[in-house]
Design brief:
Length: 379
């Protein structure tokens, strides 16, 4: 269980007794990366060449995640709030921490809306979206209040289901398929591929910046980079396989016009209704992503506000996320447009600019410390 004490400067020093294994962290990161990609196809802007964009964007996204892991390793046992305060000063650090709290809450709200739009469009069209999101939110609030250990154990139980259900849905290509549907390669040039690759870096890899509030819980810090590489590789592999599965089953033209490709693919297996499996995948992946974001936001806010237990803030944050998720878009078309045209650029300060600054400052401090130690030994 998380416990903390208030330091003299009013900040929270977390005496973290909760620990998760490297396998649990791997599953949490993998589930987070899968997240909403079950319905918002990554790199879809590259059309037939989306697989190339996934590989390129995945490589860039992996490097970005290594940046986050390096920041955590250079600042052991510190949260993102602690690192911001230490590197940028208390005032500026708190301002940036508040901006990150907003970012985590905003991201959780967008995933809530992704989930609600899908369920209300495909499965329960007569149900108000606020009801669907509200029920989901209650479950996730309870999960986050259970602590990081509970989240880790649930990831062990649920996240392995995602690739299993993917392979079941993949049976559709046994009956309907065109294995040349992704050809010709680079028909529209390299520019759409690079643009889609950039989008794929920000969604979902850059969003793992939220784990800077969680990496300190890993029981074996030396395995952090291995966990990052492995979870990233698994996510990229699954994304490529999902792309080929969908384009082989649907064809390039239908895939470019369909709203939810995985759902449409699941309808193509004759005599077998596996439509609900897409819902389950979204529940698991989206649930992990929202839980991590809410957990990160609640912990960060508790440090800023000087509250010793983040659980006191969880319900308020989840409630705000639900309200924001209903308000943030007018319709589903606006949701897709925002994800493709606005989100990647909106995220640059949070995902790239500030983390790179923190990494440089952390390396600089490490260099100064190493020189000081070397000087004291000579003396």
């Amino acid at each position: 269980m998380d416990r903390g004490c208030i330091k003299d400067d009013g900040s929270i020093e977390v005496m973290e007794k909760a620990r998760i294994s490297s396998f649990q962290l791997f599953l949490l990161v993998s589930g987070f990366l899968f997240g909403s990609t079950v319905i918002l196809a990554p790199a879809q802007g590259a059309k037939n060449d989306a697989w190339l964009a996934i590989l390129l964007g995945g490589a860039g996204g992996t490097l970005l995640m290594v940046v986050y892991a390096s920041i955590a390793l250079l600042n052991p046992s510190k949260t993102l709030v602690d690192i911001l305060r230490e590197k940028l000063g208390k005032v500026i650090g708190n301002i940036f921490a508040i901006l990150y709290i907003w970012y985590f809450i905003h991201l959780a709200s967008l995933v809530f809306r992704n989930f609600g739009e899908f369920i209300c469009t495909v499965t329960y069209p007569e149900t108000p979206i606020v009801v669907v999101i509200g029920f989901f939110a209650v479950v996730l609030a309870y999960t986050v209040n259970g602590g990081i250990e509970v989240m880790g154990r649930l990831s062990e139980l649920l996240v392995p289901v995602i690739p299993l259900l993917f392979f079941i849905i993949g049976l559709s290509i046994l009956t309907v398929h065109d294995f040349t549907a992704f050809l010709p390669i680079l028909e529209n040039g390299i520019k759409p591929v690079l643009s889609a690759a950039f989008d794929y870096i920000s969604f979902p890899f850059g969003e793992t910046v939220a784990f800077l509030m969680i990496f300190l819980h890993l029981n074996k810090k030396e395995k952090l980079k291995k966990v990052v590489f492995t979870s990233s590789a698994v996510s990229i592999l699954l994304a490529v396989m999902v792309f080929f599965r969908d384009i082989f089953a649907l064809g390039a033209d239908l895939m470019s016009r369909a709203t939810f490709n995985p759902h449409l693919t699941s309808l193509l297996i004759p005599g077998l209704n596996v439509e609900s499996l897409v819902d389950i995948n979204l529940l698991i992946g989206g649930g992990v992503k929202i839980s991590v974001c809410v957990y990160a936001a609640a912990n960060a806010l508790s440090q800023i506000a000087g509250i010793d237990d983040y659980r006191k803030l969880t319900r308020a944050i989840v409630t705000f996320c639900v309200v924001l998720s209903v308000w943030v878009y007018e319709n589903i078309l606006e949701m897709f447009s925002w994800a493709e045209k606005v989100w990647p650029y909106y995220s640059i300060p949070f995902q790239i600019a500030i983390p790179l600054l923190l990494l440089l400052l952390s390396l600089w401090k490490k260099g100064k410390t190493s020189k000081a130690k070397a000087g004291s030994r000579k003396g």
